[in-house]
Amino acid sequence: RSLSLLSRPRLRWQHRSAIEVTNEPILEFKPGSPERAALQKALNALQGKTETIPCVVGGEEVWTADVRYQVSVSSSSCMHPDLLNKDIQAALAVRREWDLRPVQDRAQIFFKAADMLSGPRRPEVLAKTMIGQGKTIIQAEIDAAAELIDFFRFNAKYAVELEQQQPLSVSPSTNSMVYRGLEGFVAAVSPFNFTAIGGNLAGTPALMGNVVLWKPSDTAMLSSYTVYKILLEAGLPPNVIQFVPADGPVFGDTVTSSEHLCGLNFTGSVLTFKRLWRQVSENLDRYHTFPRLTGECGGKNFHFVHASADVPSVVNGTLRSAFEYSGQKCSACSRLYAPDSLWPQIKAKLLEEHGKIKVGNPAEDFGTFFSAVIDDKSFGRIKRWIKHAETSPNLSILAGGKCDDKVGYFVEPCIIESKDPKDPIMQEEIFGPVLSVYVYPDKQYKEILQLIDTTSPYGLTGAVFAQDKNVIDEATKILRNAAGNFYINDKSTGSVVAQQPFGGARASGTNDKAGSPHYILRWTSPQAVKETHAPLGDWKYSYMQ
Ligand SMILES: *[C@@H]1O[C@H](CO)[C@@H](O)[C@H](O)[C@H]1NC(C)=O
Ligand SMILES: *[C@@H]1O[C@H](CO)[C@@H](O)[C@H](O)[C@H]1NC(C)=O
Ligand SMILES: *[C@@H]1O[C@H](CO)[C@@H](O)[C@H](O)[C@H]1NC(C)=O
Ligand SMILES: *[C@@H]1O[C@H](CO)[C@@H](O)[C@H](O)[C@H]1NC(C)=O
């Protein structure tokens, strides 16, 4: 299959405007394949280069003295509130015109960007995600290619189809619903771990007629800037999305104190999200409209294993979920509950496979399973958890856990057994390649399900491994609020756009289900219009005669 074939748009316009879109196929990158050769070329092109990235103010590139470095990148930070305020003004200046563009026009830009990512720009954005964010080929492919392309295509389809949801008209009036963008600007704060999330956070509000200030993560600058450029090349007018690398607190303070803030989508820590929410409440009196606040803040995701489970699925599913991308996914499995009858088998197999995991530089050695964690802060935090495991009498390290920051922030995949189901390591998010296991007596599985539900403040993802249908049924009921994405006999990671819409409640966030039609509704402020075609004859009612 050649790469140029891939650039053919995979959508068909049917009568009126139902649009057929399918998920972007995930390429395999087998030795000798054209996609592998193209990727290798793109990786080579990035070697030893430093790309410089401006901050964009009112459509102009601005180079500030405050320069940040990511691997292979230096970027100018729009540190100053004055620059940010200029961005806000520039965005607001184009808002009306952008919002009035027919949704089909706006959607075309995203279909085009998806086609560019699917075809000619795929190797570049993959290479930048691999090098910049330390991803393996497959982790970059499912993110920067498949998921981002799917977000653009499906959201564009949902946006166009939304127009067909119209109210009843009763003679002599016609009623219609106008899907307006929100009045003001949307602030989007994206994380380092998914190139696709950045594109979706900034892109989807824009698709719906909003203007957006996008603060990309310092550690995903290379890929984020490329996505931004691709959107412009696909026809996104200047100033609809403002690309503003900035310090979190400066950005947060400036956007929350603007009277024009109308929406905020945040991905990151609970603490920061709460801080932004509080700032918005404190500024409530200034705003023209109630800002929509949405956030995704992580998880403490579980794999519950029942005595009737299929052991190999448990082992391989858990290894992938816990350790892929060094566990730096909000959906990563970080607590495993195993029944004592199966534990010896599960443990033996986990340790055996653990020994085969290669940690290294995935851009140089395609055989690595995962790479270094993203930065020194992350490294330090994970190291503290491993130290905790070493010193706590209730915890024992079964495998891995060595930390080495000589050439990168490398952490060996670590498996820990906890005798205490309520140890902080079973409750708090770690965001690293650390899996904690609690072994329970088979008979007590119901109590364990209750325990899983009440152990952590999060409610993002979770999985149940069991062959017994009654157990699956019970678990599904008891864990109803424990996970927004719930898996049965499958791992807790790997949600696919339009197949498993993503998001969780509790401390995990506002559960807006990215990758579904519900998501786009957050970015529209509908207007109901009634038009009457007959003269209004009377003000008196018949009963008054
Ligand atoms: C689990 O993964 C290993 C390594 O990829 C593989 O050898 C083994 O067959 C897998 N087990 C099952 C049941 O698929
Ligand atoms: C990405 O990382 C952030 C932390 O920077 C985390 O809060 C978020 O949940 C992660 N999202 C996903 C989809 O992994
Ligand atoms: C060890 O676990 C038990 C409960 O299983 C708990 O009561 C005790 O406080 C824990 N010890 C430490 C040091 O955390
Ligand atoms: C906000 O962004 C996250 C991804 O980080 C996404 O899961 C969530 O659905 C988004 N919410 C809205 C309303 O855009």
UniProtKB/TrEMBL annotation:
Catalytic activity: L-glutamate 5-semialdehyde + NAD(+) + H2O = L-glutamate + NADH + 2 H(+)
Domain Aldehyde dehydrogenase: 84-528
Family annotation (PANTHER family): 1-PYRROLINE-5-CARBOXYLATE DEHYDROGENASE FAMILY MEMBER (PTHR14516), DELTA-1-PYRROLINE-5-CARBOXYLATE DEHYDROGENASE, MITOCHONDRIAL (PTHR14516:SF3)
Protein's GO biological process: L-proline catabolic process to L-glutamate
Active-site residue list: E296
GO molecular-function terms, A-Z: aldehyde dehydrogenase (NAD+) activity; identical protein binding; L-glutamate gamma-semialdehyde dehydrogenase activity
Superkingdom as given in the UniProt entry: Eukaryota
Keywords: Mitochondrion, NAD, Oxidoreductase, Proline metabolism, Transit peptide
Subcellular location field: Mitochondrion matrix
Gene source species: Sphenodon punctatus (Tuatara)
Protein's recorded name: Multifunctional fusion protein
GO cellular component terms attached to this protein's record: cytosol; mitochondrial matrix
Enzyme class: oxidoreductase
Family in the record: Belongs to the aldehyde dehydrogenase family.
